[in-house]
Amino acid sequence: MICSSLEHLEVAVAEWKSVGDRIVFTNGVFDILHIGHVTYLEEARRRGDRLVVGVNDDESVRRLNKAPGRPINPEHARAAIIGALRCVDAAILFGEDTPLWLIEAIQPDVLIKGGDYDPEDKNPKSKTFIVGSDLVKKAGGRVEIIQLVPGFSTTSIVGKIKED
Question: Is the pTM of this model over 0.85?
Fold first, then answer.
């Protein structure tokens, strides 16, 4: 499901929580979907009952300077693909540099990031700091990492295409 607004997402999350479902949240660009993304999202879903995924909108990807010419796929296509995956219960676009407001709004039980982050890092200026981790932990939730699949990244896929 793709949520067109925060209100739409909040209604869905409230309904899931009312029946005792554990909410898992993660976020990313998900530009060219590959096995690393799918493996990561499937594993994230196994950490709870419902998976909510924040997808960076095009402007935030450019602002965060992921790579020249990125994103390749437009935001509506990336969100639709993520939202269509069986392991994803809700996808929502966000335009801020971080998904902090989403985390505050839905208060997930589990916050997930990739293995290049550190759930114990308390320095918000560090590259390994997980935004929202303090809020989730304070509310009694968990912050976990999932190891990335070696050899798979959108950047490496784009590089291979440019080589040919």
Answer: yes
